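My hope is that you will study the record closing this message with an eye to the fold:
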Amino acid sequence: MFFEWINNEPEFCYTIQRINNELDGGEVIHQEFVDVTSARTFREARRLVREVRYKLYLKAFENIQKQNNFPIPKDSKLSKMEDADKFLNVMRFI
């Protein structure tokens, strides 16, 4: 969530996936986007995501019961760690 916040993205993606040897390479069990445009602080954005997480877990368990095959992400959009040190990004986080 940190990088979505410092990149000023309007929503956070909440993904539940199986773990494998590749970074973000496991099967996607459930994925949902949470709108955080109403959040004025990182703490508020984090609260919005936490409010829906248990519902997302239940959906993931339901998906596991219904399906045997899940999609594997083709590309992963990772933010670079060095972006965290940029002054404006740090100020937005604070």
Q: What stands out?
A: The first helix runs from residue 2 to 6. The mean pLDDT is 78.
